[in-house]
Amino acid sequence: MDRLDTAVTLLTLVRGVLCLLLSFSCWSFAAQPSQALSDEQALVVDVWRLVNEAYVDPSFTGVPWRKLRQKALEKSIQTPSDAYSAIDAMLAPLQDPYTRLLRPEAYSQLEAATKGSVSGVGLQLGLQPESGQVVVIAPVEDSPAAEAGLSDGTLLVTINGQATGELGLEGSAALLRGSPGSSVHLEVISPKGENRSLDLERRPVDLRPVRSRRLRAGEHTFGYLRISQFSETVPEAVAEALNDLQAKSIEGLVLDLRNNSGGLVSAGLAVADDLLPGQVIVETQDRNGISERRQANPQTIYSGPMVTLINGGTASASEILGGALQDNQRSELLGATSFGKGEIQTMLALGDGSGLAVTVARYLTPNGNPIQGVGLMPDQLLSAPEPQGSSLGSDEDQWLQAASSQLLLQLSQ
């Protein structure tokens, strides 16, 4: 397995946005607590060491990283809560919200989300690149958040009276989750600047990340494949869906990545393998400035005409896939500019049940274009209003109709 496979293949999310759904790669480091320290102090030292060995900027530009370790240990650390607070304070000067500690409950919830199950309101969160505010990347389909009309770009101001600016990304996500039947109060600002106050009831959210069906466009039959996040089950489900659609003699494919906030990069790469015959999928730059290019397998499952839908909720692993399809001229992108999350996090399990996310690399599209803070520009911008909620992917979805029209144009050429 080469370095890129190691850094990217075991990537765990978000999940950009949901949360959730951020993108993670996994490198393994053995935690060896110092015998001279208590377990709680050793946890702080382990986190410092792991970040020191993996962080994308090895020089920690402008941050006195070595001094922060000593400063953290000068505090009274007698309980796990003390250790978590010391770690949060130690990581804060990095000003990287994606390099963060996940307390045991949050870490277990994140693991559940990568396997396709979660209990909450169904919001995938990210950080607004310009302001760092907690923002909705996308609501999960058929979730309480989607039913309430929350859309991508909505600013999440408070949760149960607590400011998200103080909670941070993971704290906000953790507070949204909870036992089925309980409720959570939100104060939000819509993309149009309207203030909303609402209560949502938490419930099990069926992520169901892959959906497919046939589309009729005049005398032609197309396939529709929607991927709402990249979890462990997605590659197998996508392969099954593509084979099933081709058995029904489709003449073209609409790939829908709208509101896909990311997830496991390995799952996104596997889908790219199904669609790109041996072409470069992504370029990754590691902490040593070394760039490596990940190529798709020579064989594909589907090689026919296709177009891809993206929007402001398309982030992280889905931007890797969309950028690969666009740069290799495999598929035109239609819709709106994507979210713009082009950094990779590794997720490390700590000995006490908590987890550590560390930004370890940045990725570029095959043509060398950055994604972080920029996003993907579609080949064809589609006009507002953008389809939301239950209309997404339905026969009333005007963007889907535009994608079908583009496929008809391809067939006529």
Automatic annotation (TrEMBL):
Keywords: Hydrolase, Protease, Serine protease, Signal. Gene3D superfamilies: 2-enoyl-CoA Hydratase, Chain A, domain 1, 2.30.42.10, 3.30.750.44. SUPFAM superfamilies: ClpP/crotonase, PDZ domain-like. GO terms for biological process: proteolysis; signal transduction. GO terms for molecular function: endopeptidase activity; serine-type peptidase activity. Residues 107-181 form the PDZ domain. GO terms for cellular component: outer membrane-bounded periplasmic space. It comes from the Bacteria. InterPro entries: ClpP/crotonase-like_dom_sf (IPR029045), Cterm_S41_CtpZ (IPR054628), PDZ (IPR001478), PDZ_6 (IPR041489), PDZ_sf (IPR036034), Peptidase_S41A (IPR004447), Tail-specific_protease (IPR005151). The keyword Transport does not apply. Pfam families: PDZ_6 (PF17820), Peptidase_S41 (PF03572). Residues 1-30 form the signal peptide. Belongs to the peptidase S41A family. This is Peptidase S41.
